[in-house]
Amino acid sequence: MRLRDKVILVTGGGSGIGAASCLAFAREGAKVAVVNRTLSKAQAVAQSLADSGETAVAIQADVSRAADVERMIERTVSQLGAPNVLFNNAGISPSGPVGDISEADWDECLNINLKSVFLCAKAVIPLMIEAGGGCILNTAGTFGIRAARNKAAYSVAKAGVVNLTRSIALDYARDYIRCNVICPGYVDTPLNEGFPPSERDAFLAGYQPLPGLISADDVAEMAVYLASDAARMVTGQVFVIDGGQQAGLFA
Ligand SMILES: NC(=O)c1ccc[n+]([C@@H]2O[C@H](COP(=O)([O-])OP(=O)(O)OC[C@H]3O[C@@H](n4cnc5c(N)ncnc54)[C@H](O)[C@@H]3O)[C@@H](O)[C@H]2O)c1
User: Fold this and answer.
1) pLDDT tens across 49-74, in order?
2) pTM over 0.90
3) Considering only Cβ atoms within 10 Å of each terminal Cβ, which end of the chain, N or C, has fewer?
């Protein structure tokens, strides 16, 4: 029970890494606010937690909108209590070379992947200061460390998340608020469901040194450690889970 009685808010909790993290957090004793833009997805995860006797609420919010973020925090506080941990995990992953990205698509990608992290952090920081500390965890990705072809808006947004993580860590260390970022490689989630398995396997053969697929559960396990008091002196750091891809230039 590494997270006993902690209130944890997970954005993008209705699918993939977020859903796996909600289940892992609850198994470790946390009360979980499952936040998603599509309410039915959040409800499905919250219901499966309730079915196994865990405490969870489903909250609809578009985390790129300040008003939704305020409402999301108010509901979490009123139903579960002030969040001890915020997991900024919601994201979208559009593709396209720089010259083909419309202004609207650029803004949407930056707003959902990066501005949301700023808005959600800004909303919980006063509560965490009042509580004497807290933990903010972000999901960026290896594309936030090195750019990838045809992923300009996404790579830029995730690089922003990496340095926003460091900024939050530095600005609030003396308030005992820790902030870290997880950078997964290719993870087998609905985000990648447009990738046919045969093409995916050929891609991974040249991209990821360790054989096999990284699962959402693999990432959730890392999130549990970072959210727990076992990581009490860990802040401002980038945690890569990529099957060794970042270890060298050519897999
Ligand atoms: N899957 C990968 O290969 C991979 C790799 C690196 C990083 N990531 C990052 O991990 C995070 C989770 O991705 P995933 O693979 O679990 O994807 P996913 O599509 O399975 O889950 C993302 C969830 O975020 C929700 N969401 C999207 N926009 C939202 C918004 N504006 N407000 C609230 N919810 C919103 C979606 O509805 C979805 O439920 C994302 O930030 C993604 O960029 C994923």
Assistant:
1) 999 999 999 999 999 999 999 999 99
2) yes
3) N
